[in-house]
Specification:
The complex is a heterodimer of chains A (185) and B (182). With 185 residues, chain A is mainly beta. Helix content of chain A is 9%, strand content 49%. Chain A is built from two helices and twelve strands. Chain A has a twelve-stranded mixed β-sheet with strand order 7-8-9-10-11-1-2-3-4-5-6-12. Chain B is built from three helices and 13 strands; from the N terminus they run αββββββααβββββββ. In chain B, the strands form two sheets. Chain B has an eleven-stranded antiparallel β-sheet with strand order 6-5-4-3-2-1-13-12-9-8-7, with helices on one face. A two-stranded antiparallel ribbon of chain B has the order 10-11. The radius of gyration of chain B is 16 Å and the shape is globular. The two termini of chain B are 22 Å apart. The model of chain B has no long low-confidence stretch (mean pLDDT 91). The chains are: A mainly beta (185), B mainly beta (182).
């Protein structure tokens, strides 16, 4: 509803930059734990993100504003996607772009300081994203996919609106990695 | 990390018997799949209860890539919000996703357990190092094992690599982060 969208955008507008460590737990629809990981996330307006998962699940996602780079050391490959096209698979990028028109593709509900964001389109694998704020701090995020699988992140060492180095969002192809460039040129 | 290799040489037949007796287990790790058409990695979750298996591949973001479950003769595959049924897991997976993964034999191979007429080589500690399948439908895979880790009383593989000898560009790498016996 409109009020929730406005409230969410008001929260996100204040989030010029955000960095935190996270604990991730993925559970299937029956509640079995499928994956547990630790990592670090850095967000910076507009539309920049660095999402790094630590070994043994090492993976890195870098959104530099135009391109989303997925670095996968386990197969020594980088997949490049147009950021706009990647929002379906990873709505988290939208957190750094409160004014983005892409928000219209999501319904937002608010209960207390938790926002639930539903993807309107059915072809997005992530069907629901929920954000939890405490005072002005983003403390939790959870994504549910169309199979009812939930990936829940709890944040710690949270730093909001502190200066973030540009290199966090710049990408160079690691030595020996193959580039799978899926961007529309 | 993996423990030091055992001081004494393993009694292979005994080790193979131990592996065969492990029929209720769960493994969590990482799977990499490479073929001329596709290349990806995912978190691998495999639960085996006697003949019954449940297999899930999950992206590191946490969304489902593929789920398969069933037992020999009746298998369901959930991928891209569609459900498919078949009697043969490997054939079903290949038909729907194009991925060639020997799901039918993996419950044994993933433990380092050789099947009836598989050709096997052992390392100097008596642990399986290389396996060439004997069964007709899976003849083209060559499997290499390393990174054995002690789980309770038995040594289990930590790193398994399968190469399709018909087309070596098609390969699978499995790294086991955790074995759990049930």
């Amino acid at each position: 509803d409109e009020a929730a969208v406005a409230a969410l955008q008001q929260h996100l507008n204040q989030l010029h930059s955000y960095s935190a460590d996270f604990e991730q737990q993925v559970t299937d629809a029956e509640g079995n734990i499928l994956q547990q990981a630790q990592g670090h996330i850095v967000l910076r307006q507009p539309s920049q993100m660095h999402w790094e998962v630590l070994p043994p699940n090492e993976n890195i996602l870098i959104a530099d504003g135009q391109t989303l780079w997925h670095i996968d050391p386990f197969v020594e490959q980088v997949v490049a996607l147009d950021q706009a096209a990647a929002v379906d698979n990873n709505p988290i990028i939208l957190l750094t772009d409160p004014q983005s028109p892409q928000w219209e593709r999501f319904d937002v509900q608010q209960t207390g300081t938790q926002f639930t964001i539903h993807a309107q389109s059915t072809d997005s694998p992530i069907t629901q994203l929920s954000l939890t704020f405490e005072q002005a701090q983003l403390t939790g995020l959870a994504m549910t996919d169309s199979q009812g699988q939930e990936s829940a992140l709890t944040f710690s060492n949270i730093q909001q609106n502190v200066a973030v180095a540009d290199q966090q969002f710049s990408f160079t192809l690691p030595q020996g990695f193959e580039l799978d460039d899926q961007r529309q040129h | 990390c993996a423990q030091r290799p055992p001081p004494q040489v393993l009694d292979q037949p005994l080790h193979q018997q131990q592996l065969a007796s492990i029929i209720n287990w769960q493994l969590n790790g990482r799977l990499a799949f490479k073929s001329p058409e596709d290349k990806f990695s995912a978190t691998l979750n495999w639960q085996q209860q006697n003949q019954q298996f449940e297999l899930a591949l999950t992206s590191f973001i946490g969304s489902t890539l593929m789920e398969m479950s069933g037992q020999p003769g009746l298998v369901t595959l959930d991928v891209d919000d569609q459900r498919y049924l078949d009697s043969n897991a490997s054939a079903l997976l290949r038909r729907i996703t194009g991925w060639q993964i020997p799901v039918n034999q993996l419950p044994q191979w993933i433990k380092g357990q050789a099947l009836a007429n598989d050709m096997v080589e052992y390392d100097e500690f008596g642990r399986i190092q290389r396996l060439l399948p004997g069964c007709s439908e899976c003849a083209q895979w060559e499997i290499r094992y390393n990174g054995f880790q002690r789980v309770g009383e038995v040594w289990l593989p930590g790193d398994i690599r399968l190469v399709n000898l018909d087309d070596p560009r098609n390969s699978i790498k499995i790294r086991v982060n955790e074995w759990r016996m049930r």
